[in-house]
Amino acid sequence: MMLKILSGNQVKALDAAHVKLKRISSLNLMECAAAGFIDWWKSKNFDKNSPIYVFCGAGNNGGDGFAIARLLYQSGFHIQVYKCFGDATRLSPDASINFKLLPEEIRLKSWQEFDFANGGILIDCFIGVGFQGALRTEAQEIISSINSFQGKVISVDIPSGLPSDDMLEGVCVKADYTVTFAFPKLSLLFPEHGHYTGDLALVDIGIWEEEYLPFESPYFFLRKKDISGFHRKYSRFSHKGDFGKVLITAGSVGKMGAAILSAKSALRTGSGLVNALIPESERHIIQISVPEVMCLFDLPKDLTGFDAIGIGPGIGFEKKAELLKSLFEGYSNPMVLDADAITLLGEHPELLSQIPKGSILTPHLKEFERILGKTNNHKERLGKASDFCKKWKLNLVIKGANSVICLADGRQIFNSSGTSYMATAGSGDVLTGMITSFLGQGYSPEAAMICGVYQHGLAGEIAGKGKRRGTIASDIIDAIPETFVRLDIS
Ligand SMILES: NC(=O)C1=CN([C@@H]2O[C@H](COP(=O)(O)OP(=O)(O)OC[C@H]3O[C@@H](n4cnc5c(N)ncnc54)[C@H](O)[C@@H]3O)[C@@H](O)[C@H]2O)[C@@H](O)CC1
Ligand SMILES: Nc1ncnc2c1ncn2[C@@H]1O[C@H](COP(=O)(O)OP(=O)(O)O)[C@@H](O)[C@H]1O
Ligand SMILES: [K+]
How far apart are CA 433 and CA 323, in angstroms? Predict the structure, then answer.
């Protein structure tokens, strides 16, 4: 089971059902959230001498803030709590109890008394998923002031002012870190909001995935623990035929790197046999750099012997629409379409209906526009992707941070692995090779995308750890085998 991403409106009902099931109080759950935050805090090793300012609203997000302030105070940190509400405001019941539990020494001052030129750490517990309507004037002022703070800002559950399921319209807190509870709120995964959310951490507050079952949502969050269930098991007697024979159609004059990267990635992901369809004039470069790959110079008449086909990286455009057509005519199993193949589909929409059902298209945002048209934002993009997948019975991987796997049945799965060090030429070619390889090993399109996308991100993390912005696509390939080790996949 994968973690469901619910809407902000569903959170109250989820919490209420959880509290009932576990026979605890909502106050216990708030304490659990605060304790989870403290665990994350400890993992960060923030400077013990740094002053900490906790900005609290009157709702349960503020309640989290009071509890966090108490726990940090007990651990010896220098805390001051600031209230973002007037004296006459009634606190939510749990916030009120946590307010009363605050030690006398760190009792509240009003946010207006705070000098935003201060340094240190500001914990933003002003507004959480209970944000509704348009921000009131004072709230706008508070948020703009928080954004003028010179130190680090940590938002609890969600940056205050960011709607949990929609695009930001007004102002919201710009956080360096967002520590969110139970599941990532949908809007935290939109690229447009990256500037506001900062680094994202997910804190488990003890709600099991089964407890999400009664709640409808097409969105899921893919984590490390989900991956092994999608993998095939091999036996001692497995032979190379069991690991699949794939065809990678990639590269052209001047772009043979794309073919090398995709083909090598397929091998490193476990394919038994990798054939590359390339221009004959370019054979030396690939045969020298990846001797394990066999080269073809013309599309074979019979394609049925291939367990999977991946097409697109660096193929160029000359006569390639015809190539796509021939592939679609000669092959009826799901294939992987990337890069130039996607651009060609944008120019030849009449080909969309001929793509084998269940195939996987892996566009980055620009390529996405070429087949699905312009979108104003990620929310709209997800909607268009869902309609497209259902209409054509195809799957999409919308690439980027938190790549989204869009399935033909409408489910959309956000990936959690990866690093910005992967924003480097050729890393998409690596993904094409990996997904094609899993498809060829007999994985369903869903399993191939899930394992491919997650492990691609994990390989990027492994490669990026030591090489940071010096990471190149070949480093990601070199790290693929280590991903099987980390996931304990034999
Ligand atoms: N038992 C629970 O329900 C739990 C809730 N938790 C926390 O509770 C939060 C949700 O709490 P609530 O539902 O009380 O809501 P919030 O505390 O997120 O939001 C309500 C507060 O925001 C203000 N606000 C809302 N819309 C506004 C607007 N347009 N302009 C200005 N101010 C506005 C309200 O006046 C109120 O003070 C979560 O984000 C999470 O941080 C966690 O403690 C986990 C357990
Ligand atoms: N900031 C990021 N965080 C995580 N992954 C990223 C990030 N930027 C890029 N990636 C990943 O790197 C790959 C880039 O693919 P693509 O844009 O096709 O590159 P190229 O065309 O150079 O091969 C995608 O899989 C994408 O998810
Ligand atoms: K907040």
Answer: 19
